[in-house]
User: Which sequence fits this backbone?
């Protein structure tokens, strides 16, 4: 259960990041995209983007379960790009 808007947005982005490798491989197989293109995930909360882009220990993210840090790993390994979008 999310305790704040930040946590909710971060968890939602992490869930989306779990689907990104599958969609990426499907699009490559169907020759819809180049192999070198990176999946872009747009998030409307900059507070949720910062912990994923800068993997230092954030005070806000200490309550988030480890399984949701898959988003951070995808950004670090450059398999996923996070971009802010206005709502």
Assistant:
């Amino acid at each position: 259960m999310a305790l704040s808007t930040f946590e909710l947005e971060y968890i939602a982005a992490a869930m989306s990041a779990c689907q990104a490798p599958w969609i990426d491989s499907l699009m490559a197989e169907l020759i819809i995209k180049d192999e070198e293109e990176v999946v872009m995930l747009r998030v409307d909360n900059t507070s949720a983007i910062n912990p994923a882009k800068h993997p230092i220990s954030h005070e806000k993210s200490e309550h988030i379960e480890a399984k949701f840090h898959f988003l951070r790993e995808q950004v670090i390994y450059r398999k996923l790009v996070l971009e802010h979008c206005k709502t």
